[in-house]
Design a protein that fits this description.
This protein is an alpha+beta fold. The protein contains 6 helices and 7 strands; from the N terminus they run βαααβββαβαββα.
Length: 172
């Protein structure tokens, strides 16, 4: 079973761990020692947190729970015009289990029920791009580094999606 819980201030070390794991293969390729890795990751983590807070001040930050364990994080932003997936990251032990597909499906159902587009951006090299495309996201922009993607419910399907919405969230 997968559900999410709100992030609390004391969850910062876990969120940093999730972030660091998303950069592991990149840093392994650079061959840096542990001190250099830590310094770089701290700097990048802080920059990411400040950028997210500035761009998405009302974002909903949640920890993903799977099999009773903290598996990752999801950050979303809702407005009357759109639903944005800001960040979705899973620890390595929880990848390729369908968790991302499930969470994206929940967001698609929520967007469909509200008749809103679901938007995200991803690095060109992000392996999750294949998942996004498989789930019906289309590329709407490309700045050479990141692609913007969007999903919209096809005409005639909105009613079905709104009747089957199942969030799985747990606000404990």
């Amino acid at each position: 079973m997968v559900h999410t819980i709100p992030v609390r201030t004391e969850d910062a070390p876990f969120l940093y761990q999730v972030y660091a794991e998303t950069r592991r293969s990149e840093l392994d390729a650079w061959g840096w020692d542990e001190a250099a890795r830590h310094l770089f990751l701290q700097m990048q983590w802080n920059a990411q947190q400040h950028a997210y807070a500035a761009a998405y001040p009302d974002a909903d930050s949640r920890i993903i729970i799977c099999r009773g364990l903290r598996a990752g994080r999801i950050l979303t932003c809702r407005s009357p015009q759109e639903l944005i997936l800001v960040d979705l990251a899973l620890l390595p032990d929880f990848r390729n289990e369908g968790i991302g597909t499930r969470l994206l499906g929940d967001l698609q159902q929520e967007a469909a029920a509200a008749t809103l587009p679901l938007r995200l951006s991803a690095l060109h090299a992000n392996p999750a791009r294949r998942l996004y495309e498989r789930l019906g996201f289309t590329v709407t922009g490309d700045d050479g580094v990141r692609i913007s993607m969007e999903w919209r419910m096809a005409e005639g399907h909105a009613m079905q999606a709104s009747n089957t919405t199942s969030r799985g969230d747990n606000d404990e």
